[in-house]
Structure formats: structure tokens, C-alpha cells
Amino acid sequence: MATYELDGALFADMIRGGTQNLRANAQVVNDLNVFPIPDGDTGDNMSMTMEGGDAALHNLTTDSLCYIAEKLAGGMLLGARGNSGVILSQFFAGIAKGLSNVEKADAQTLGNAFQSGVRQAYDAVLTPTEGTILTVAREATEYAVARITPNTTLEEFFSCFIKEMHNSLQHTPELLPILKESGVIDSGGAGLVYVIEGMNKILNGEKVATAIAAAPAAQVVDTSAFTADSEMEFGYCTEVLLQLQNSKVDAESFPVNTISDHLATLGDSIVAVKNGTVVKIHVHTMTPGKVFEFCQRFGEFLTVKVENMALQHSEAKTENRFDAPAKKQEHKPFGVVAVAAGEGIQETFRSLGADFIVEGGQTMNPSSEDFLAAFDLVNADTIYVLPNNSNIVLTARQAAAMYDKADIRVLESRTIGDGYAALTMLDFESGDADQIERDLNAAMEGVVTGLVTRSVRDSHLGGMDIAKNDYIGFVGKEMLSDATTVTGAACDLLSKLDMTDREVLIAICGKDTTAADMDVVRAYIGEHFPSVELYEIDGGQDIYHFIFVLE
Residue 383 is part of which domain span? Predict the structure, then answer.
């Protein structure tokens, strides 16, 4: 059956199909990672981005296409993770812009919206790189739009779009030499293919295979952590998703600080983020009932979660992604948000002046929403952000563009070494926001960060034939060492680094690094680089056995 017009209900169903199809194939996308290291999270990042958009469409009953597209874009922008996730969210945000005031769209209108999506996705990246998801989206859009006639059906439009997406995806290794050397196609482009294919299946009345999820394990409560004789000390971690109701307030213009300001009288660690007419709330409180009673004045709950934090403390974990302070910090002129994983690294960053740590790094990229909540809690006029990972910079920038309560300045810190160097020079004494930013950027100039980890697959990079489970050492995208032992890879990597005029070497040991491993590395540095001063940090990070920072 031919479809000539797309309405909001069909679009929402198609998005759900695209989300499901991507989630079912997320691991396939993850495995396309260029580097054979355990950071292939593109599929997961893109899936969580789509899921953020899909969640924003739940319980909506309108057929208005522009309204559905706007809600989808808002949810995706908040949930965006990683570079590919951010680009994907911007693509759909551009589509929403192209569908503004459109109740139903024919193929030409949809094609125009896709062109808007491509433009916005390219604009979101300072230096667009061809051979990526950007190329796949652009070439497929150009091909499909060029073939639209007044009689083109939506089925024909998507058929053309998907045909060219596959052609473009297979061509990505010719545009990016590192893809060709690694023998893979672009992972972000592959993720987009799965999204559009899932949407197309719903359009054609087909079923979309869903990811097979393991049956949830029955929750086991450690009752010994809170007994009949216990006293409530930590309170309840309380989270709600509140749908504002027009019968109670003006849902669109409702000021979210109405909720956050009152919650400050009921608890701490408060996060309140408004997305359209839905407010996501997090608070630590002794009286969750009062939180519910207050919030219900403005709307109704979509989800509610309450957990006794005594159980969380007994398990030495928390569901919150944030290294949340006890309460919203006192307002100040300047603040710093840094991204880090590993207790030792996080504590080092705090000691150097970071006000707030967003937990994240390889395989664990924070979302735009994570950054927005961090900005609220830091509570400063100017906030400097250290993403400390090349796959997090774009997300931080997107969050900064969405935040209007402070001057957010995202620095180009692409490694833990960059972030460490910047923090060692942190000084707010001048009171000049521009000068402080220049000083932080200057501190990162010339810093070299070397990483040692284990290969997760066979690969050929940098002229090396790398076997699965080998230990590898690299700087940026340059593979420098390959060995069967972690110390072999670490010492070989150090031998390849230019120590000329270097005075300081920081060795950050990972969670799986042994004292014997560090003994070998320490002896090697002492023998071969006697003039370099060595500082050791027990970082506790996953994935990387060693992080070497040369200053």
C-alpha cells in the first residue's frame, strides 16, 4: 500500500522501529571500532541517544508531525552520548526544524527536512570529516531528494535513501585511510543505516527484531544493611519523571526552578531538568512523600523510583552517574567540571580544583543531560569544562549550547593528560574569564598522553600485525607498541616517546596494574630517562593499565 503522507503517529512508530533495530544491532556497530581497544561503544551511544528521543514520545497521542518531531529532537539532544550520538541527535533536530509547522509531510517536504538535518549535523562539528556518519547522511539525502517527483511515495523515498546509504557506507574506507587500514566501515554511518532501516520496516508494515534481553534478575535486598534497630542516616534517593499538566500549570512555559528551589528545602543533590513539558527530577531526601506531594501540584508522574541509600552505601555504589556534592554549591564566579573515571584520578582532579566530576571515559560516555545537571550543581557564573576524551568533547559542547544560566566554556581536553595539565595551572586570581581560559589552553599545549591496554581483536595498524589479547601502546591515533606482556608494551611505548626537554612524567596505574608491573616500569624509566622526574598515581581506572603523561 502506497503512503503519500507522513503524520506524527506514523513517524513516532517509525522512530520506535529505528530505535529497536539499532539496539538489536548495537554490538555489530560497536565491533566496527577502528582501534582494537575496549572502547567500541558507538552502537551503545547511538542507541541510548535514540532511546532518549523515543522515551520523549511515550504517552503522546497527537498526530501532529511537527510536535512529534520537536519532542523527539528534545529527547535525543538531552540523551546524546559520544560524537556519533551527538551528530545523530543534531540530524534529527535539523529534521524537526525542517518540519516546523508541518502537520503532515509528503516526500518532497520530508526530503527538505532531511536536507535541513544534514546541514545542522555538519554545523554541529567544527571540522566535519568525510567518511563518517555525516557523509552517509549527506550522500543518501542528496540521492533520494534528487529522485523525488510529485508522485513519489514515502516507500520510494526511503528505498532510495537506504540504497545510497549502503553505497556510501561501503565507500567510507576510501575517504578515511584509517578505516581502510583497519578493514572496517564507519561505525557511526552503520548505526544510521540500522536506524533508517528500522524506520523503513515499520513504514512497510514489517516487524523489527528486538534485542534479546536477559530476564531481569530478582532484586535481592541486603536486609542486614538496614534492620529494625537502624536509624535513617542517608535518606532516600528519589527520582521521578514528571509530566506537567496544562490543567494545573502552563506546561510549556513552566519555570523548572519552581521545583528545584523548593526541593532544596526538602533535601540535597538536586537535579531538575525540563525537556519540553516533562521534568526529570533527582533528590536525596528524608521525606520522599513530601517531594511527591509538591511535584503533583504541577503534573502527574510517568515514573517514580525511591531507594534507601543505606543499601546503596552498604554496596559501595550509587545509581547516580554524578559525583554529586552534598548539596548545590554556593554561588561563585568560576567553577570547573571535569570528566574522569577511576577513583584515584577523580580524587586527584578534585585536589587540583575540579568542583565537580562527571563520571565517564572510554565505554562510558556521559550524556548532554549529565553535563546540564553538573552545571546546575556547580552554580557558577563561568564554568570551564574538561571533557578529557575526544569522544566527549562534542557532547559537552552540545550541553553548553543548551545551557543559559552560566557562561560555559568547553576546553579542547581530549585526554586525561590534557585535563591533568590544565588543572595543575588552574588559577582564578585574575578574575578575567578570558585570561583564565587562555591559561588553561596554554597549559595543555605540548602535553603527550600515552595509553597502554589490551587488544580486543586481531588488527593491522601502524604497520603492526596485532593479535587479540596482545598489549598495545599508542598516542592519539598512532599505534606505537605491541607486546605479549603489559610491561613489554609499556616500556616499548616509553622508548618511542620523545623525552627531549621533558622534565616530568606522570604514570597513572590502572585497576588491573600490579605492584610488580609498576616496579618494572619504574626501573625502566630510572635507567633510560634518569633526568625525568617520575610521579606515580594509583588511578584505579578501567581499560588502561597505564596512562603516561609527559609535561
Answer: 332-444
Nearest in space to 414 (alpha carbons), one of 364, 461, 448, 368: 448
Q: What is the DSSP letter of 105?
A: B
Indicate if 393 and 535 belong to the same structural domain: no
Pairing of the two strands 236-244 and 278-285 = antiparallel
Residue 298 lies in a domain: yes
Query: What's the domain count of the chain?
Result: 4
DSSP conformational letter for 330: P
State the Cα angle at 190 between 157 and 464, rounded to 5°.
150
Task: Specify whether the CB–CB gap between 402 and 394 falls below 8 A.
Answer: no
Judgement on whether residues 396 and 355 belong to the same structural domain of the protein? yes
In sequence order, what are the residues at sequence separation of 6 or more whose Cβ sits closer than 8 angstroms to the Cβ of residue 416?
340, 345, 361, 388, 449, 508, 547, 549
Q: Rounded distance, CA 43 to CA 17, Å?
A: 16
Question: What span, in angstroms and rounded, lies between the C-alpha atoms of 540 and 512?
Answer: 8
Instruction: Provide the pairing of β-strand 267-275 with 278-285.
Output: antiparallel
In a domain, 93, yes or no: yes
Kindly report the backbone phi and psi dihedral angles of residue 221, in degrees, each rounded to the nearest multiple of 5, phi listed first.
-95, 125
Q: What is the CATH number of the domain that holds 101?
A: 1.25.40.340
On whether both 463 and 508 belong to a single domain, the answer is: yes
Q: For residue 430, what are the contacts with CB-CB under 8 A and spacing of at least 6?
A: 436
Enter the DSSP assignment of 237.
E
Asked whether residue 242 falls in the same domain as residue 175, the answer is no
Cα–Cα distance between 269 and 252 in angstroms, integer?
Answer: 25
The SS3 assignment for 362 reads: coil
10-residue mean pLDDT profile of the chain (551 residues): values are: 93 96 92 71 92 89 93 93 94 97 97 98 92 97 97 97 97 91 89 97 91 50 71 82 91 89 83 76 88 93 82 46 56 96 93 92 82 91 96 94 95 95 94 97 95 88 87 92 96 93 93 95 95 94 94 87
Q: What is the CATH number of the domain that holds 356?
A: 3.40.50.510
Query: Any idea what DSSP says for residue 219?
Result: P
Residues 247 and 470: their CA atoms lie apart, in Å, by: 62
Closest CA to 125 of 80, 173, 87, 94: 87
For 216, 475, 494, 532, the CA distances from 498, given in Å and listed in that order, are: 51, 12, 8, 12
Q: Check whether residue 253 and residue 299 sit in a common domain.
A: yes
Three cell numbers, residue 430: 585574575
Pairing of strands 407-410, 356-359: unpaired
Instruction: Assign 3-state DSSP to the chain and report helix, strand, coil percentages, each to 5.
Output: 45, 20, 35
| Residue 282: inside a domain | yes
Contact 81, 121 (CB under 8 A): no
pTM across the whole model? 0.79
- 488 and 381, same structural domain? no
User: What SS3 class is residue 88?
Assistant: helix
Measured distance CA(198)–CA(202) in Å, rounded: 7
